[in-house]
Amino acid sequence: MTSDKGGEPQALEGASLNEESSQVLEARFQKSARLAETRPIFPNTFRPRSQVEAIRLELGDKTHDELEALSRVEVVAGRLMAKRDYGKSTFYDLQDSTGRIQLYLRRDHVSPECFELAKQLDIGDLVGASGRIFKTKTGELSILIENLELVTKSLWPLPEKFHEMSVELKYRRRYVDLIMSENSRRVFRIRSQVVSYLRKFLEERGFWEVETPMMHPIPGGATARPFETYHNALERKLFLRVAPELYLKRLLVGGLGRVYEINRSFRNEGLSVQHNPEFTMLEFYQSYAAYEDLMDLTEKMFSGAAETLLGSPELVYQGLSISLKSPWPRLSFYQSLETIGQTPTEALYDREKALARLASLGGEKNSNDSLGKILAKIFDLVVEPKLIDPTFITLYPAEISPLARRNDANPELTDRFELFVAGRELANGFSELNDPLDQRQRFLTQVAEREAGDEEGMYFDEDYIRALMYGMPPAAGEGVGIDRLVMLLTDSASIRDVILFPHMRPEK
Fold it and tell me: Which residue, 242, 243, 244, is CA-closest to 252?
């Protein structure tokens, strides 16, 4: 893009431009070339001393006379977002990472060189400015420019002020979306705060943050289709992790009683408003705990996040009023199918009748599906969409819960829960299966399902069985979808709205 001299822009190659865009770019390149003859257009010498938000918090309530008495000089840097030129004076809107402030340039208050530079600036340029803080007659906090410097020349124009970017373009060019959209900046600020909150919440309760491998010799921890890669030096196939669960539970065996990981996981599945092939999860495990303990903990975690970050456990998501205030309803898997999903009792225990029920709902049938899998498909269609306020669904069938502990009263069920809010799953937890013999048999069942064509079936992990044979204490663990939690707390309709760089199909 630039010459070896570090200043003069060169021709832009390989860009797909229409005629209008090409003309605008050409004009910018010509202006940049003229500027580069007299000054660096990509210098690295300006250092701001304040950010806009800090200035507003400290000085925003002061009157014009109070600011005059202070005679305070501020030094800021940011991007020019608007320009109103009145000949001998110009108003600019400068935006940094924390907010916007107005700059006021008067010809009689700056050097001729500074005034000449100001006239050549474009919307989108990054500048540094210093000057006295004051308030205009309309009460607008502003900076009277004493010195103005070009920090970075913008060669590609920003979208026009009154023309919104398309949704797809926002995802593909997130850097532009963040420049233009205050709401996008808000969403990702809250996302950062959510992660910080979760860390603090768990560490206050004695959990250690740990890191486990992202490349696994055997994919495990969830029923999902993995991505495959190959390590040349080891001469072996590896898989991007679908979940960190089996490694975290190895740490319980090793004596780390409370562990958590905020991790990237990868699943080679489709794209939707709820699914991205690369996503962020919180997984945490606690020795000497059961699934009921984690349900209690989850209520405190979620309601606390809303209170801390939004100021209230009451929120609105896509027009739905939702209360995160505890306690939350707890309903068994089978109860929910009957009472919420209006599924006949006999269909819950008869595979053929369950298949007929699924067919009547237009669900996808598979001749190899077990009764548990059929019921899970029915649940997805007639129960999950109706779970708006936070609801725990418990006691899932063992055949669809390959890593969960069997229920003492009914071994066909497991001590497992899933949390649903706004019609989607946000968390999955259970009392952990620590019987190595039972776990071995369940792995073998999963392998048989894989061999029968189920690409999401688990692999057999011999080392994990060996770890269990050393003895894992009774424990409970949980996974929380951070992307979906952020969607809820920011009223975002799509998971792509809360992932900075979501995966997209190639541009045509």
Answer: 244
Query: Does one domain contain both 149 and 296?
Result: no
Tens of pLDDT, residues 324-364: 999 999 999 999 999 999 999 999 999 999 999 999 999 99
Residue range 39-62, pLDDT digits in tens: 999 999 999 999 999 999 999 999
Decide: pTM greater than 0.70: yes
**Do 276 and 187 belong together in one domain?**
yes
90's CB contacts (< 8 A; 6+ apart) are 83, 84, 104, 105, 118, 119
Same domain, 214 and 259: yes
Residue 302 sits in the same domain as residue 446: yes
Percent of the chain with pLDDT over 70: 95
Regarding whether 248 and 189 lie in a shared domain, the answer is: yes
User: In the chain, what are the helix, strand and coil shares in percent, each to the nearest 5?
Assistant: 35, 25, 40
- Total tally of structural domains belonging to the chain: 2
Q: What are phi and psi of 377, to 5 degrees?
A: -65, -40
C-alpha distances out from residue 478 to 185, 220, 246, 251, 485, Å: 30, 15, 12, 15, 14
CB 73 within 8 A of CB 146: yes
Q: Residue 302: which of 294, 292, 313 has the closest Cα?
A: 313
Task: List the one residue out of 275, 248, 276, 250 whose CA is nearest residue 262.
Answer: 248
**Inside any domain, residue 396:** no
